[in-house]
């Protein structure tokens, strides 16, 4: 019997595959948006070292969008200000994103009225944030044709928003809040809280008087000592379990 030709291992296919991957990497680098290379987009502000990954999601109303410095906006992230493109939204920004914010792939930030995201917030993929919700007051009109309700959204600095979370109009999220994956947040969330569920509720909170309640089930990670160099970290990563145990035995007792 004739041997079947394995096209997946043939050198022309491997060469074509490498060319496709290299070409796509070049397209991603060239198509990304920065302050120095904004392409067609003219944001109200875009900070140093901020980058919008390519391919972009839907972006409009960018004159009313202010992006801080050192932000990472993942692929296919939607950023919109206003109900539709080409509206005059006045002198003030509508969507404000602070410094060091990471927006995960496929996330949506819909700012028909004010949406503010504090610095150093991290969002998992496919998070949905909106300042607008459909109304259904009139039972005789299709819901999509009824005028929507709008309320500002505020997310404090230092928050961690899990994959697939939904932040609804009127949400006020405090500082250093954890929003669990898939949570649906509305209303006010206090500082230093963990919320989960739909609708989201506080499942853990930290206060100066009581610490974390309920108590954390795992010990806090040991921080990297100040002055540790990248070379030292690489060397540690190459150590085996026995080597780490010997080092622990050499540590002076407190």
UniProtKB/TrEMBL annotation:
Keywords for the protein's UniProt record, in alphabetical order: Acyltransferase, Repeat, Transferase
Entries under PANTHER family matching the protein: ACETYLTRANSFERASE C18B11.09C-RELATED, SIALIC ACID SYNTHASE-RELATED
GO MF annotation, one: acyltransferase activity
Pfam families: Hexapep, Hexapep_2
Signal peptide extent: none
Family: Belongs to the transferase hexapeptide repeat family.
Superkingdom of origin organism: Bacteria
InterPro entries for the chain: Hexapep, Hexapep_transf_CS, Hexapeptide_acetyltransf, Trimer_LpxA-like_sf
Stretches the record annotates as Disordered: 209-230
Protein's name according to its UniProt entry: Acyltransferase
């Amino acid at each position: 019997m004739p041997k079947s030709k394995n096209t997946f291992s043939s050198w022309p296919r491997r060469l074509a595959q490498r060319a496709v991957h290299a070409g796509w990497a070049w397209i991603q680098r060239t198509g990304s948006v920065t302050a120095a290379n904004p392409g067609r987009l003219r944001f109200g502000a875009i900070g140093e070292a901020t980058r919008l990954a390519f391919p972009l999601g839907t972006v409009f109303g960018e004159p009313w969008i202010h992006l801080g410095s050192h932000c990472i906006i993942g692929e296919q992230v939607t950023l919109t200000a206003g109900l539709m493109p080409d509206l005059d939204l006045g002198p003030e920004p509508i969507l404000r994103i602070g410094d060091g914010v990471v927006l995960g792939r496929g996330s949506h930030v819909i700012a028909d009225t004010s949406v503010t995201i504090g610095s150093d917030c991290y969002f998992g993929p496919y998070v949905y944030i909106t300042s607008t919700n459909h109304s259904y007051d009139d039972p005789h009109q299709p819901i999509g044709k009824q005028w929507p309700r709008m309320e500002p959204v505020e997310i404090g600095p230092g928050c961690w928003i899990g994959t697939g979370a939904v932040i609804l109009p009127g949400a006020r999220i405090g500082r250093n809040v954890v929003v669990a994956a898939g949570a649906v947040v509305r209303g006010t969330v206090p500082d230093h809280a963990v919320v989960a569920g739909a609708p989201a509720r506080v499942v853990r909170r930290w206060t100066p008087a009581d610490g974390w309640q309920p108590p954390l089930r795992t010990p806090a990670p040991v921080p990297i000592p100040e002055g540790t160099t990248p070379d030292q970290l690489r060397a540690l990563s190459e150590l085996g379990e026995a080597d780490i145990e010997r080092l622990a035995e050499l540590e002076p007792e407190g």
